[in-house]
C-alpha cells in the first residue's frame, strides 16, 4: 500500500531527498539479501513494496511508497530471534525503527534486550548513514548475558529446496569508515583477507581510516564479517554500491588491493582521479559539490 501523496505537492528538492534515501534503503536491503540468502531468513510482508519504491525512484509513480518493512530471522546458538525492521521514508536521514522478538525469552528478558538494542541504536546512529548491518552485528555479541536463561529449541536443518535457492551474484563496492587504523596487525589482516578473497580496492591507514573493497558481493560480505569481528573503537560501512554482475567490467575501478600512504590532500586527488569526489565529500562531510 502506498501513501497517496502526489509528487506535484512536494518541492523538487524534497523529492530528490526522498529518492536518495529510498535508493540507499534498497541498496542496503539487497546487501542483507546477499548476506542472508536462505529461504525464510528475510521476510518481506508487502511483496509489492520494492516495485513501488523503484517506480517512485524512476518517476513511474506519483505516490510516495509506504515504509520498507521486513523481518530478519536470526539463529544464534539455539535461539530464534525475529528482528523486525521498519525504515521511515527518509531513512537514513531518520533513525530506523527496530525491535526484537523471541518466543524463548520471557517478557522481561525480551524487554531488557530491546531496551539495550534501542540504546545502542541511539549511540551509533549518525544522521544520513546506513547502519542496519552494524546493528545486526551487535546482537550476537550482546545476547550472551540472557540467552542462558532462555528455553532452547531445535532448529531444522535447511532442506534441499532451501539449498537450491540461489541468488544472482552481484558486483559490489563497500566503503568503510574507521575512527582510526594504526595497528600493524590489523593493517596486514585487512590486506591479507582481501587478497585471499580476490577482491580489490585500498586501505588508507591513519585517523580516520578509509577502506574500499570491490568484487563479488559474497566475497565482499565475507571480508567485512572478518574485519568487523576485530576490536575497533568505531568502524562502519558508510556506503554500499551494488551492480549487476554483467556491469563488473565497466564499473570496476581497481585491479588489486593495496595499502595507500597518502596525505589527505593527495588522497583527495586520488579519489578525484578515480571519479569518487562526491564520495570523498560524503565521507568527510564536505557537502555534495566537488
Topology:
Layout: H1 12-35, E1 42-43, H2 49-57, E2 68-76, E3 79-87, E4 97-101, H3 107-124, H4 132-142, H5 144-147, H6 160-163, E5 170-178, H7 184-196, E6 200-204, E7 209-216, H8 217-228, E8 235-244, H9 248-251, E9 257-259, H10 264-273, H11 277-283
Helix pairs in contact: 1-2, 7-8, 10-11
Explained architecture:
This protein has 290 residues and is of the alpha+beta class. The chain has helices at 12-35, 49-57, 107-124, 132-142, 144-147, 160-163, 184-196, 217-228, 248-251, 264-273, 277-283, and strands at 42-43, 68-76, 79-87, 97-101, 170-178, 200-204, 209-216, 235-244, 257-259. The relative contact order is 0.11. The chain has a 5-stranded mixed beta sheet with strand order 8-5-7-6-9. A 4-stranded antiparallel beta sheet has the order 1-2-3-4. Helix 1 packs across helix 2. Mean pLDDT is 83; it is low at 4-8, 148-158 and 160-166.
Task: List segments where confidence is low: pLDDT < 50 over at least 5 consecutive residues.
Answer: 4-8, 148-158, 160-166
Multimeric status of the protein = single chain
Q: Biggest β-sheet, characterized? A: 5 strands, mixed
How large, in whole angstroms, is the Cα Rg? 20 Å
Proportion in β-strands: 15-25%
Order of helices and strands: HEHEEEHHHHEHEEHEHEHH
Q: Helix count?
A: 11
End-to-end distance, in Å?
38 Å
Shape: globular
Structural class: alpha+beta
| Number of DSSP strand runs | 9
Overall pLDDT confidence: 83
| DSSP helix fraction | 40-55%
Sequence of strands across the biggest β-sheet: 8-5-7-6-9
Amino acid at each position: 500500500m502506498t501513501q497517496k501523496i502526489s509528487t506535484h505537492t512536494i518541492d523538487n528538492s524534497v523529492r530528490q531527498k526522498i529518492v536518495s534515501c529510498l535508493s540507499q534503503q534498497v541498496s542496503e536491503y539487497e546487501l542483507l539479501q546477499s548476506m542472508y540468502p536462505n529461504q525464510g531468513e528475510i521476510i518481506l510482508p508487502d511483496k509489492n513494496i520494492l516495485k513501488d519504491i523503484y517506480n517512485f525512484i524512476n518517476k513511474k509513480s506519483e505516490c510516495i511508497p509506504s515504509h520498507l518493512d521486513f523481518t530478519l530471522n536470526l539463529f544464534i546458538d539455539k535461539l530464534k530471534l525475529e528482528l523486525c525492521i521498519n525504515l521511515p521514508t527518509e531513512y537514513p536521514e531518520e533513525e530506523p525503527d527496530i525491535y526484537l522478538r523471541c518466543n524463548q525469552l520471557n517478557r522481561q528478558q525480551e524487554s531488557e534486550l530491546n531496551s539495550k538494542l534501542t540504546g545502542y541504536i541511539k549511540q551509533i546512529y549518525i544522521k544520513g548513514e546506513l547502519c542496519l548491518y552494524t546493528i545486526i552485528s551487535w546482537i550476537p555479541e550482546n545476547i550472551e548475558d540472557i540467552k542462558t536463561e532462555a528455553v532452547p529449541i531445535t532448529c531444522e536443518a535447511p532442506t534441499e529446496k532451501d539449498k537450491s535457492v540461489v541468488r544472482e551474484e552481484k558486483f559490489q563496492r563497500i566503503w568503510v569508515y574507521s575512527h582510526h587504523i594504526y595497528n600493524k596487525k590489523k593493517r596486514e589482516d585487512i590486506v591479507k583477507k582481501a587478497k585471499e578473497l580476490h577482491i580489490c580496492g585500498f586501505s588508507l591507514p591513519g585517523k580516520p581510516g578509509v577502506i574500499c573493497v570491490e568484487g563479488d558481493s559474497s566475497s565482499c560480505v565475507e571480508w567485512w564479517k572478518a574485519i568487523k569481528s576485530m576490536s575497533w573503537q568505531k568502524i562502519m560501512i558508510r556506503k554500499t554500491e551494488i551492480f549487476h554482475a554483467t556491469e563488473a567490467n565497466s564499473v570496476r575501478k581497481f585491479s588489486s588491493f593495496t595499502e595507500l600512504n597518502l596525505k589527505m590532500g593527495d588522497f583527495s586527488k586520488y579519489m578525484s582521479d578515480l571519479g569518487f569526489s562526491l564520495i570523498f565529500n560524503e565521507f568527510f562531510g564536505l557537502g555534495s559539490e566537488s
